[in-house]
Amino acid sequence: MRPIFAAICLFFAIPALASADDPYTILGVSIDATGSNALEAQTLAMRRGQAMAAQRLIERLTLPEDRAGTPLDFGSAGAIDSIFDDSAIAELISGLQIDNEQRSATRYLGELAVNFDRRAVVRLLSSYGVPFVESQARPTLVLPVYDAGGQFYLWDENPWLSAWTSRSYAHALAPMAVPVDGGGRAIISAREALGLDEARLRELASVYGVSRIAVLRAQEREGVRRMGGFLVSFDAGAEMVVDTWGPETVYGGWNDAALGFVVGRENAWKREAIVRNTATEDLRVTVIYGGLGEWQSLQGALTGASLVTNARLDAMSRDGALMTVSYRGALEQLTSELAERGAALEEHPGLGWVVRSAF
To answer: In principle, which of 92, 101, 200, 288 could form an S-S bond with 188, CB 3.0–4.6 Å?
Structure first.
C-alpha cells in the first residue's frame, strides 16, 4: 500500500495518459484546496481529486442497485474517501495528468485526469461482489442541431454544438464524438440531419467509421430548454433503424444536457451488458469473411470481447473459419457485445452459429 503523497510524486515522473480511449480513464476532475502553505494545498487538492475520480469510475462501471448494501453504496455509506483511506485509493491509480494548474502561497487549483489500473479496480469490485460492465458500447457520432425559432443550425452559431465540443466523451461507456474536423460540413446540413436523409447519414457514418448516429435537436423558448431526437443505426445489409428519443426538459445548461444524454446511454448499456452469470459455455461458430483484412477484424472482435475467455481456431479456408468460443454470461449479451465490436453473431439454418461483419 503506498501513501497518497507517493501517488502525487509519481505524477511528475509518469508520461501522459495513454491515447487509447478506455472507460478506466476519468477526465475533467476540478480540484481546488487551500492550506497553510503551497505543498499542503496541493496535497489536499490531489487527494480530493483522486478520491472524486475513483468514485466517478465506480459509478460509471456499476449500477446503484448493485452497490446497495455494500461499502460502495455511496448514497448510504458516504463519499469514497470516507470509506477507504488515501493509500487504498492510490492503489487503484496508474497515472495522473493535470491541466490548467494555478497556485499561490496557500491555494492550489487545476483539472485532473486520472488513469486507473483495470486489474486493481476489478479486484476491488469483485471483492465486494459488485457486478460491473467490462466493455464499451460502440461509438456514436452526434449531430447536435440547434433550433433557434425555426432556424436550424448545425455547424455555425450553435451553442448546442459548443456544449458537445467543450469536453471529451471518448472514455465514456457509451463513447460519443461530434464531427468537428470540417468533413461533416460538406456532407450534411441541419435540415438534412433532422429529416433523416439516409444517403447523407450513411455517407457520414462511412466517413467517420461508425454505425450509429444520434441526431439531437435542442431549443430554448421562454427560458425553458428542451432536447430530443433520433438514434440511427446501420447494420450490414440492413435497412436504417431509427429510434426516437425524448424530448425532455433540460435542467441546467447545455453542457449538463450533453452529459445527461451520455450518462443515460451509459446506464442503458450497463443494464444490457453487465454479466451476472459467470459460468463458462462453449459455442462452435463459423466465421465468414471476404479477405484477410475482414478475417483479422472479426478474429479481433472475438478474441478481444470481454465476455470471451477463449477463442480456439479449429479450421480455416479462404473465406471461412471454424472456431470454438468459450464465453461468460448470456448468449444475448455475447451477441450484443460482438455487435458493438462490429461482428454479428446469428444462427444460420445450414451453418449453425455464424459470425460475420456487422457493418
So the answer is: 200
Fold classification of 140-273 is Rossmann fold (3.40.50)
Please state, in angstroms and rounded to a whole number, the distance separating the CA atoms of residues 312 and 278. Answer: 20
CATH dotted code for 4-127: 3.10.129
Q: If you write DSSP's letter for every residue of 143-163 in order, what string do you get?
A: EEEEEETTEEESSSS-HHHHH
Report pLDDT digits (tens) over 228-244: 999 998 875 578 889 89
Range scoring the smallest mean pLDDT among 11-25, 113-127, 241-255: 11-25
Cα–Cα nearest to 242, from 227, 234, 232 = 232
- Residue that is written with C-alpha cell 454479466 in the block: 275
* CATH 3.30.450 applies to domain 280-357: no
The candidate with the shortest Cα–Cα distance to 264, out of 214, 306, 305, is: 214
Could you tell me which residues come within 8 angstroms of residue 353 by beta carbon, excluding any fewer than 6 positions away? Answer: 283, 284, 285, 286, 345, 346, 347
Contacts of 248 by beta carbon, 8 Å cutoff, 6+ apart: 226, 227, 228
DSSP 106: S
CA distance 204 to 179: 9
Per-residue pLDDT of 293-351, as tens digits, reads: 899 989 988 988 878 888 899 998 888 899 999 988 778 888 888 887 888 888 888 88
CA dihedral 117, 338, 188, 293 (to 10 degrees): 100
Alpha-carbon gap, residue 357 to 296, rounded angstroms: 11
Evaluate whether 177 touches 167 at the Cβ level (below 8 Å). Answer: no
